[in-house]
Amino acid sequence: MIRNQDIDVQMQLYQARLLLEEGSNEKSLSLLETIQTDNERQQGDVAYLLGWCYIQRRQWKEAILFLSPLLDHYQSDFTQEATRDQGRLACYLLYLGIAAMNLEHYEDASLHFQLCLKVLHDRRIHLPAVRVQACYSLAMTCVMRGLYTAAIQHYEEALRLCQHFNRDEELAPIYYGLCETYRHLGDYVKSYLVGQEALHLYQERAEREMEAETHHLLGRICFLLRNFRQASDHYTESLSLSTVCDKPTIALLNYAALADLRLAEGRLDEAKLYCQRAIETIERTDHTHIRGAVYQAIGKVTQNEARQVIGTQRRDLLERAFAWYKKAEVQLATTQAYTVIAEVYSNQAQVLEELGRAQDAIERWRQAYGVLSHAKV
User: Fold this and answer.
1) pLDDT tens across 346-371, in order?
2) What's this model's pTM, rounded to 2 decimal places?
3) Which CATH number describes the domain made up of 1-70?
């Protein structure tokens, strides 16, 4: 249940954001400094907006103080290389964009990365690593908003910059991003090939967490190619690595994926088992996007179970499936992951159709279309 205090704080955050966009940095800063909340998500938003304010004021120490907790172990510090004030601004815009992405504010992140690249057009500023990272990070925001053609263009530009500046250490995340983008575009063969390139690079660098994430992504591609055995191998390896790294978020993704896989194989009991494991693990992460994906997967399994029974039991299971999809919607509501949100609305519409609630189903289909239309703006 949403508390009145959380609603009040959210209104203040919107107001502070509007003041920032209008250039009223002092007013925004004054408002943000008065906000008090025990909601971790809102605490993150306050820190992010404060970081944004201080960047506008060129107060770098204060900015990084608030942004550091939001950077999620991001290691690079380019500020020592920035000898000009504009160069330092480019560095901090990159940090701000990464913080926005970690908070799932993908539109904001896109604006920060674009401005970062605009600042770097000044030939007096030579920060190749910042330029490459801003370029492929911008591509990532496009993927999350369903802008796949634009994402490919940004990733290809990042590859060109890597070659130009001899930045081979940046290739792995670019190949990973291309793998994800080609998957969305339906080019699964090309997606798998570049994904293998990413996996090889992460293995060479012993980056176990990203190795786990890449195995998971390759598993999804094999699933789409109907190569279920290979998909299972990738998911299982990813799950094993997530245990070694103690990364419950990756484990959750694999539980959801394995549930989906077993469902496709017609092994409903095993699918339900993986759903139960996901439920037992989900409280170990507050990552809204991943929690939403897990609830969605559980909804699919429950909906499929309903199709195998009749009468009151069928209706009860469909109601439960809809409840899981609603939980997914609540988790994703604060993100800007439009394609995933649209899929949740579509799933809700299908359940409502099966429940005989045609008008409600039409409304959900309309919402799905509206979200995807917004993503393409």
Assistant:
1) 999 999 999 999 999 999 999 998 88
2) 0.84
3) 1.25.40
